[in-house]
């Protein structure tokens, strides 16, 4: 058995989970919802084993390093953290339907990684040979994943809020929308996910600065990646200030959360694809 | 006049205390920061300058877009943010400190209306006895209460972690601490670069500002090497360095290994492996077409040297074995570029084992001088980033404060419980500085437990 086979199984599990969640939306049968969650957790377990196996495989090849060194590995890890954060929110707050809006992000990542990215294990270039790699990547991606969950929840919020506005005069037919948690809860979940993500992003930026200082003697050099991570930090800092002190809740908070995640995705992928800098994910430095 | 002045000051103060300003600054910083990730920073490369119009270039230069993170307006935004968060903190801190140090220890009926969680229990027991029992209950189940008697009513007040209200201000402070650290770094530290050929010693480095700095000690590069993985990708860039004081090696800093991600630190100055290159010396001789009147010419690394006839030359490429490039030939060869006094540039290959080719090339080009390659002495140079930053520990202190502050601000709350015993009615009220949703069940549990405790005792 190879890690590559397990990653394929993971992708299938996430796809099945998403389909079942859509079935849940249609059927409103709680058992179907449970099956959706369980499929996502099964995928997460297989993926965890696969990541461990890939780690071991790299040692067998004599170039042992944590599987966080190139775009393929980072996208796979991003998917893993998204489902991990989803599991945390699902177990803690028990709004299963959130999965229908979060699992697709993870599936998208896995499908892209498996179909479109080079998956061979490469030796680590000198610049990445440091324990800081592990701390920096884990904190950043857990933060990104929490923002992904917040974005999914915000999309749900906007759908539900729009529906409530349209049907406010007539008697609400219930239907699909009755599955969605109340807008108040979605708004709260959005905030809670960001509350998890913001400290992790802060830690991610700090570990990045510490590593840069250790390896190059400058903790901050306004490299595009650094700058974009700061932009993301500014957006969520604005979100928090607006919420705490100016009462920006509901729609405006949902939009800020979606903008924040768009900035996050640009920070993660856009910077590598469109701009130059130090984070060239295995593209060689 | 004075009132007018006061009005101006007051409105200035209000401006800096406003959260609208905070939002404006955070969003503006986020948006403007994008500019520097799109427009190249530092001296614009010629290809970029060629792409944009002259007016655009002038506008960008005026607005400082080529060094935008150090431009006056970006720095001004950062200063405004600092003033804004200091002003906000000063405005709100006294109120917060008062809540912490002088809590409201009694529960008035007006207050009761504004508190989210209120419950009431009936009891016919003596108020005195009730007070003592509820006090010990709160002590064991929540926190040690403060007891006050007002107009025949007993008030009990207990609270948990009031100090966590300060966490937000710790985060604000941490931002300022980080800025101070950055300033210390830019005032008392420096960043520079030095390249050292193998076997040579340097005592001076070039700073980013363009100046030269005397280190006060020497650094000798003993060796530089690159190792590769089987697939040819670089595995390790390694310099072996020795620190010299008054020309003598310092014992613990002799043959120190410096690789990427593992720098050398000496006297607060850190040396980072950053680049490398060829510093080998090439040897040539110039003869006449008969091969007589030989004159040696030494060309160090990629330097340009003057030739006897006034022209200059440098080596663009060299090899130990030319057969890979020119089948049938052998031995070392160098590709050189010669700039004649007339301004013409001539690029050609000079051989070590094939003097006849060198002669025929010279004859073809009507030159009286023939150049022969005599091989090279192999040598690498190491490029080191040099940095001194006495402010870095202040920055880490700021980061530490920020992480602690953000954690406490998000995940802890100041929880308060009031109990009033009056006319056989026990009123319990409670609130939390944040996350009321999580506090509500905690409060309910507390009330339930108190109710059972009180009734249980009575039935016994």
Explain what the structure shows.
The complex is a heterodimer of chains A (285) and B (460). The radius of gyration of chain A is 20 Å and the shape is flat. The two termini of chain A are 33 Å apart. Chain A is mainly α. The longest helix of chain A is centred in the middle third of the chain and has 35 residues, at 132-166. Chain A is built from eight helices and no strands. Chain A is 75% helix and 0% strand. The relative contact order of chain A is 0.11. Chain A has helices spanning 3-27, 30-60, 71-93, 99-116, 132-166, 183-216, 224-246, 251-274. Chain B has helices at residues 2-17, 19-38, 46-51, 54-62, 72-101, 109-114, 127-141, 167-188, 355-364, 392-411, 436-459, and strands at 117-122, 146-150, 153-160, 190-197, 201-207, 212-228, 234-245, 248-249, 256-259, 264-266, 269-278, 281-288, 295-300, 305-306, 312-319, 333-339, 345-351, 369-377, 380-388, 415-422, 425-432. In chain B, α2 runs antiparallel to α5 (72-101), α5 packs antiparallel against α8 (167-188) and α8 (167-188) packs antiparallel against α10 (392-411). In chain B, β16 (333-339) and β17 (345-351) form a beta hairpin. Chain B is of the alpha+beta class. Chain B folds into four domains: 12-98; 103-161 and 413-459, 2-Layer Sandwich (TATA-Binding Protein); 190-279 and 381-388, no CATH class; 283-374, no CATH class. The two termini of chain B are 76 Å apart. The relative contact order of chain B is 0.14. Chain B has eleven helices and 21 strands. Chains A and B meet through α6 and α7 of A and α2, β7, β11, β19 and α10 of B. Chain B: Keywords: Cytochrome c-type biogenesis, Membrane, Transmembrane, Transmembrane helix.
């Amino acid at each position: 058995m190879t890690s590559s086979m397990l990653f394929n199984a993971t992708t299938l599990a996430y796809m099945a989970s998403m389909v079942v969640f859509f079935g849940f939306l249609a059927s409103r049968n709680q058992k179907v919802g449970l099956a959706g969650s369980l499929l996502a957790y099964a995928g997460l377990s297989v993926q965890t084993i696969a990541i461990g196996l890939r780690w071991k495989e790299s040692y067998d090849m004599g170039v042992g390093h944590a599987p966080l060194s190139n775009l393929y590995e980072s996208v796979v890890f991003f998917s893993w953290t998204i489902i991990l954060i989803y599991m945390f929110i699902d177990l803690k707050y028990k709004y299963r339907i959130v999965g229908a809006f979060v699992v697709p992000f993870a599936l998208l990542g896995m499908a892209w990684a498996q179909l479109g990215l080079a998956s061979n294990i490469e030796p680590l270039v000198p610049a990445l040979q440091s324990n800081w790699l592990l701390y920096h990547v884990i904190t950043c991606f857990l933060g990104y994943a929490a923002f992904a969950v917040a974005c999914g929840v915000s999309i749900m919020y906007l759908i539900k809020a729009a529906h409530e506005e349209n049907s406010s005069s007539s008697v609400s037919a219930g239907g699909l929308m009755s599955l969605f948690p109340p807008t108040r809860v979605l708004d709260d979940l959005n905030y809670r996910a960001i509350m998890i993500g913001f400290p992790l992003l802060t830690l991610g930026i700090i570990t990045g600065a510490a590593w840069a200082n250790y390896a190059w003697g400058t903790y901050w050099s306004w490299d595009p990646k650094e700058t974009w991570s700061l932009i993301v930090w500014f957006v969520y800092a604005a979100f928090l200030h607006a919420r705490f002190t100016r009462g920006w809740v509901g729609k405006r908070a949902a939009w800020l959360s979606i903008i924040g995640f768009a900035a996050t995705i640009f920070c993660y992928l856009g910077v590598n694809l469109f701009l130059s800098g130090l984070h060239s994910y295995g593209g060689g430095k | 006049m004075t009132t007018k002045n006061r009005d101006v000051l007051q409105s200035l103060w209000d401006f800096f205390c406003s959260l609208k300003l905070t939002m404006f600054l955070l969003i503006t910083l986020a948006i403007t920061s994008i500019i520097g990730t799109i427009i190249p920073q530092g001296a614009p490369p010629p290809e970029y300058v060629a792409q944009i119009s002259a007016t655009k270039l002038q506008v960008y230069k005026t607005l400082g877009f080529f060094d935008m993170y150090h431009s006056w307006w970006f720095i001004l935004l950062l200063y405004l943010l600092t003033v804004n968060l200091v002003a906000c903190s000063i405005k709100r801190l006294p109120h917060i400190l008062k809540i912490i140090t002088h809590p409201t220890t009694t529960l008035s009926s007006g207050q009761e209306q504004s508190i989210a969680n209120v419950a009431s229990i009936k009891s016919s027991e003596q108020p005195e006895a009730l007070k003592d029992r509820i006090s010990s209950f709160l002590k064991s189940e929540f926190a040690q209460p403060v007891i006050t008697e007002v107009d025949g009513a007993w008030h009990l007040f207990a609270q948990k972690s009031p100090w966590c209200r300060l966490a937000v201000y710790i985060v604000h402070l941490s931002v300022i601490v980080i800025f101070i650290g950055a300033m210390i770094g830019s005032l008392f530290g420096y960043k520079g670069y030095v390249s050292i050929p193998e076997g040579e010693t340097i005592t001076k480095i070039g700073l980013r500002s363009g100046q030269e700095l005397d280190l006060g000690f020497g650094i000798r590069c003993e060796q530089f090497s690159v190792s590769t993985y089987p697939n040819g990708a670089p595995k390790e860039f390694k310099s072996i360095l020795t620190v010299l004081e008054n020309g003598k090696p310092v014992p613990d800093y002799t043959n120190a290994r410096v690789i990427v991600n593992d720098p050398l630190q000496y006297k607060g100055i850190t040396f980072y492996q950053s680049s490398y290159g060829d510093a080998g010396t090439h040897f040539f001789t110039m003869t006449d077409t008969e091969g007589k009147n030989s004159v040696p010419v030494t060309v160090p690394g990629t330097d340009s040297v003057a030739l006897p006839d006034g022209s200059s030359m440098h080596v663009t490429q060299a090899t130990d074995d030319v057969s890979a490039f020119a089948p049938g030939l052998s031995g070392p060869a160098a590709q050189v570029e010669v700039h004649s006094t007339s301004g013409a540039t001539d690029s050609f290959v000079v051989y070590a084992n094939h003097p006849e080719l060198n002669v025929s090339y010279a004859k073809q080009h009507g030159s009286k001088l023939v150049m022969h390659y005599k091989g090279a002495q192999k040598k690498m140079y190491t490029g080191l980033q040099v940095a001194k930053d006495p402010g870095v520990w202040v920055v880490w202190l700021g980061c530490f404060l920020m992480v602690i502050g953000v954690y406490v601000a998000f995940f802890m709350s100041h929880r308060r419980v009031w109990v009033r015993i009056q006319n056989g009615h026990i009123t319990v009220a409670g609130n939390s500085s944040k996350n009321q949703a999580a506090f509500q069940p905690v409060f309910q549990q507390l009330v339930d437990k108190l109710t059972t405790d009180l009734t249980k005792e009575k039935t016994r």
